[in-house]
Design a protein that fits this description.
7 helices, 5-stranded parallel beta sheet, 35% helix, alpha/beta, globular, 5 strands, Alpha/beta knot, 126 residues
Amino acid sequence: MEARGAPVVVLEDLGDASNVGAIFRNALALGGGAALLSPGTADPLYRKAIRVSAGAALALPFARLPDWPRELKRLRDAGATVSNAHGNREADQDEQCRRRQPSHFFFAAAFFGASCGTISSASACE
């Protein structure tokens, strides 16, 4: 999957099809190049996800990463920057993170139930 330098959205265990559709819609509208899904994420081709996404789920390339979280680690090892959306203020204020201009940027969103996910346990800018 080629995102041609555009940001990539990573979804971890986001089980609600409406939320998946909304994220696909916003990712496409904001210039996202692709989406990567953990095994627990709802199917973006489910009719509710397609409806909520206003068709963006059909336009935005996506791939499911079956070997989670090893494949997320491989992205980082290959030089990708992963910025998560868990609201860590200290991470948001990290000056080095804001100054980076990576060639590959991944924005991660995850569902946090009883325990934090793989993405949330990582630092916000790696």
